[in-house]
Amino acid sequence: MSTRKRLVIIIDQSGSMKAKQRMVLAKDAALTVLNTLTPDDYVTAIAFSTSPSFPPGCFGSSLAKATASNLQVLREWIRNLQASGKTMYSLAFETAFDCFVNSSSTDKGKNIILFLTDGEPSDDPSTKIYPSLIQGQQQMNNSVSILAYGLGTGISGNRNAKEVLTNIATENKGHFTIIKDGSKEKLNSAFGSYYQYFVTAIGNVALGKQTSQSSVMLKQFPNLAVNGRVDGKCSQTNYEENPWWRVDLQDEYYIMAVDISNCCNNILKNIEVHVGNNEIRELNKICGHINVLKDKENHIILCPADLSGRYVHLGVRGRNKSFSICEVR
Predict the structure, then answer these.
(1) DSSP character for 120?
(2) What is the pLDDT of residue 107?
(3) What topology does CATH give the domain 5-200?
(4) CB atoms closer than 10 angstroms to residue 106
(5) Going by CATH, does the domain composed of 210-328 fall within 2.60.120.260?
(6) What gap in Å lies between CA 205 and CA 219, rounded to an integer?
């Protein structure tokens, strides 16, 4: 579920990003995040190598409202980025904090930097990078979280790079995550830390809310999927046609993501997630699908931008199907 975001996306476009389609992976990651934004949010992007650069138009060195037209400008600019040059972390972070400072008059929200890179910095962490972060946080009253994403073997096989990115994230209220080469299909899972940051900010609004499902098997009631625990006690329907589960959030929310957990030797297939203001699943919009959710797995679905609703529906289609879910957040 979503709260207002003030977001700076930093994309490494140094020469090493040409390797193994990492520039493509970084672009896909940035575009994935743009799809989570609503008109209440503020955003900009920075590409960095030897020096930083901005998108055209109203962005410059400040945040812009995440309107449809502004997001389209960002998408086109990101798609056209080319890799060349060095990997100067400090200049990118200094520029990002300038964007926050220059936008301090905009509506309040959660300040976050998404940092996407594939390599060890060209500038010195102790004398350049860490001091730039300390100074930036002082300007922003320590209100900015940094989520760092390392792309490919340039990070996973480099001890120094991992140490620097881990320090950047942990010292700035964030997380460090590695995205493997060629793992475009796993971007949603890799961006779990991004989603969890905003869930933590406002709490899990599904927790303890009113639930219902198409039928109840052996006292496996629907509320067991919003009790905050994955402990073997799950909701489950009878075997029937097109079984479903639903939570009533009791207010309309922008839905950024839905986090679903499974357990208990149960394999779920072809799950549909709908969001909207109607109690009938088919009259609401699709958030996304899960092809397979195995035992003890959880899966985060990032919903399309601007998707809002009071009801979140989960279910499967077909005859003689039972639907069981252990926790929905």
Answers:
(1) -
(2) 60
(3) Rossmann fold (3.40.50)
(4) 15
(5) yes
(6) 24
CA distance 204 to 197: 11
CB contact set of 326 (below 8 Å; sequence gap of 6+): 224, 225, 230, 232, 233, 234, 235, 261, 262, 263, 264
C-alpha distances out from residue 144 to 31, 53, 81, Å:
21, 21, 26
Interatomic CA distance for residues 293 and 225, integer angstroms: 15
Instruction: Report the distance separating Cα 120 and Cα 89, nearest Å.
Output: 9
Residue 61: the pLDDT is 82
Measured distance CA(2)–CA(71) in Å, rounded: 18
Residue boundaries of the structural domains of the chain: 5-200, 210-328
Task: Order across the sheet with 257-261: list the strands.
Answer: 298-302, 257-261, 327-328
3-state secondary structure of 324: strand
pLDDT of residue 1: 45
Predicted local confidence at residue 106, as pLDDT = 59
pLDDT at 195: 64
pLDDT by 10-residue block (mean), the chain, 329 residues: 79 89 86 82 93 81 89 94 92 94 75 90 94 95 92 78 93 87 60 62 79 94 91 90 95 85 80 95 91 81 82 94 90
Q: Are strands 144-151 and 175-179 parallel, antiparallel or unpaired?
A: parallel
